[in-house]
Write a structure and sequence with these properties.
This protein has 93 residues and is of the alpha+beta class. The chain contains four helices and three strands, in the order E-H-H-E-E-H-H. It is elongated and about 60 Å long.
Length: 93
């Protein structure tokens, strides 16, 4: 995996395309922080890549929710506590 600054991406896009064609993944950075990931694609694998990307984004979202629940203690709530919270929130509508 190669890391490329957004500046280099603007100035030398041809080099990035060559990396992708060679099968390398590229992380675009700005001020040293990642902005995005480029992966090579072609007509044969495009739909598969898009499907897998959608699945991966969903998996990351679920993992983040679990981590937030652990950090807040929400993962330790009983079903009774959860039902009470839902009931209380519905009373406000």
């Amino acid at each position: 995996m190669k890391f490329v600054s957004s500046r280099d991406f603007r100035i030398k896009p041809g080099e990035i395309w060559e990396m992708l064609e060679a099968g390398e993944d590229v992380v675009i950075t700005s001020h040293g922080k990642p902005l995005g990931v480029l992966i090579g694609a072609n007509e044969d694998n495009m739909q598969l890549l898009l499907n897998e990307l959608t699945r991966l984004k969903a998996k990351i979202a679920v993992t983040n929710l679990r981590l937030q629940a652990q950090a807040s203690g929400a993962d330790k709530l009983s079903e009774t506590d959860i039902d009470r919270l839902i009931e209380d929130s519905r009373k406000g509508y």
